[in-house]
């Protein structure tokens, strides 16, 4: 009854807000225009194809051959305008629109850029340097010129960000030592909902579709609620074409290590406020290789993605409808090898008493193994922005279906072992009040309803369940000259209703199948369970710009996270992990308190940034191996280690340092260093044993140095050549209790790249070419967050090495053919 009242109240509130927004938006607000020119501040020459953007309205144009621009049909109000041109320092300016506005911009050449505008977690678009929340922005240029095989790997070198990996195509983000359901992943501002509780479950997003990534480090993301306790990763796809333009690209890529073949094609246009865009992507690879293991069996993949959108911009605001498809066939590594030859073996019988050695032909084949995962993710979402007087109402609705099947039966290989089908209905409504005396206030409500069915397979790791959540919040930002203050409060409620499950072996297949509660002899792995978790969160921070070159920012934030379904209910073998997982239905929500302080210095020749943080978590949930009374592993199912989720206290603290030197405009010497420590504080009144005093799976100290030379000529623009050294220290602060985790030696990797865009006589790019290499010296190493490090299941290892190693040398060639056509009539 209580859940029904919550559902009814939330639905009524949603309906009333939508009706009010649509009815008010139907009253035509006053319209305005913005026009002017963009020129070089020193020479006064026009800058052709400079971008003039209004992020909060998702609208923009490019300057013409005379450096002039015009945006029509703008609503009344104050909006941040961003002007960007490569090789120049961006300009941002808050402009009041109330009729025709003429604004000329003069850009200065600069090799540094710290003026990026971000939209994630804020009441309005704002510059990073004026935002007290610890946030970073990764642009398309960075994503394109760094070698990767998925979008999370693409950002895993950023200070404070790492990834848990299971081969080259399965990666989950880690922010300052925390991940999984503590990080909320967004796709264009809409929460990404799959089976993210699993450590071998990747992010279901097409890497080629992403143009920008914004990462919030910590719980200061009050717009999103539970699951954002450690931060937010907002994956922002290609935005609509500028008015009067058709844009697109055709990209092809080959990587040497696993014979990766990738291709993507996109086309979109905007004319008279009507927008459309579509993209199709395919990528496939064989098993990757390293110097010690050779080719690693079970790491091949075959992925197909598609997305499309249509939208309209009018004086009342905008509306965008988006469709996304993700379909990945992903092999499942288990690490099993022949004890004599150390060659990988495959399971061929259900009893798994005898195995077959995998042939070289199979290791070099694109054909996906019978034992594999198939992950399908479908998404449709509607973004609306209604102009109400001088305020704005954002109304977003989304539906996602995540289907995960893990085919783990070698004989009846078409029968899925794990079969999870998750339907998620998300809603997000925010009202941005009119700006008044530099006060920006936003209020809103968001959440979701989920239904997860887990009984269509033969293995049941979690129960079927229904989940509903609702959260209300308020965000405030105030600017007083050089001081920016922002903060907010939020309250969340999440309700779980899990279904009881009774099973009995099928007499034909021998696999468990669901039966009624009255069936004689039935097992009962899951009981009916209803629980409501709730909690408050908040954030307060400030930035003070002492000069144009130096600023200080500080923030304190409290976060809340409800336990996920696996943590409270898991009871079974999770295919692909060699783990029998047990949950705990007595858990309390996690709460954390994070303090951040940052310093930024920027000049013509250098940018130096230092960030310090401390994050204390109560009711911290972690996974721990169980041991029996004799001190040996507790084994429920043969061949699988038994783990159970536990709860205690934790403290994570560390720092991130960036030093980017630019002695001349074309030369960049960029350096970063990041470190996080995780201490297990145990439960109140208990002493933590020495072998359990550190939190498990904390990334080691990470440093990166890159020397890059930019160049251009008559036929080449945006050319670069770079060399990169990546250093990882040894990680000896490990959770060694019950052999849960082992120390990891340090290592150094060398990477390099060269590329640029070839232009025709008119100065237009007809192809961009990139040649990049990672781990050029073919170093054999194991990342501390590589799950395959623990895949070793036979005794007497005569090599002195255990587990599987990370990818060896990898060389990639990428070609991109851009499309950029004016749709305006030539007079």
Can you tell me about this structure?
- The protein is mainly beta.
- The chain is built from five helices and 49 strands.
- It has a 22-stranded antiparallel beta barrel. It has a five-stranded mixed β-sheet with strand order 11-17-18-15-16.
- The model is unreliable at 1-30 (pLDDT under 50).
Counting H and I runs of at least 4 residues, what is the number of helices? 5
Low-pLDDT runs of 5+ residues are: 1-30
Major β-sheet profile: 22 strands, antiparallel, barrel
Assign the structural class, choosing from mainly alpha, mainly beta, alpha/beta, alpha+beta, or little secondary structure: mainly beta
Proportion of residues in extended strands: over 45%
Rounded mean pLDDT score: 88
Task: Give Rg in angstroms.
Answer: 27 Å
DSSP E strands, number: 49
Distance from first to last alpha carbon: 68 Å
Which descriptor suits the 3D outline? globular
Proportion of helical residues = under 10%
What would you say about this model in short?
Helices cover 5% and strands 53% of the residues.
Topology, please?
Layout: H1 2-25, E1 31-40, E2 51-54, E3 59-62, E4 68-75, E5 77-84, E6 91-97, E7 100-102, E8 105-107, E9 117-118, E10 126-127, E11 135-138, H2 140-144, H3 151-155, E12 161-165, E13 171-175, E14 178-179, E15 183-187, E16 190-191, E17 210-217, E18 231-237, E19 245-255, E20 260-271, E21 274-285, E22 289-290, E23 294-295, E24 301-314, E25 317-331, E26 345-347, E27 355-357, H4 360-363, E28 372-388, E29 391-407, E30 418-432, E31 439-453, E32 465-480, E33 483-498, E34 501-505, E35 512-515, E36 523-526, E37 529-545, E38 550-561, H5 565-569, E39 571-574, E40 579-582, E41 590-602, E42 606-625, E43 641-661, E44 667-682, E45 702-711, E46 716-728, E47 747-759, E48 765-774, E49 810-822
Parallel strand pairs: 1-7, 1-8, 15-18, 40-43
Antiparallel strand pairs: 1-4, 2-3, 2-5, 5-6, 9-10, 11-17, 12-13, 13-14, 15-16, 17-18, 19-20, 19-49, 20-21, 21-24, 22-23, 24-25, 25-28, 26-27, 28-29, 29-30, 30-31, 31-32, 32-33, 33-37, 34-35, 34-36, 37-38, 38-41, 39-40, 41-42, 42-43, 43-44, 44-45, 45-46, 46-47, 47-48, 48-49
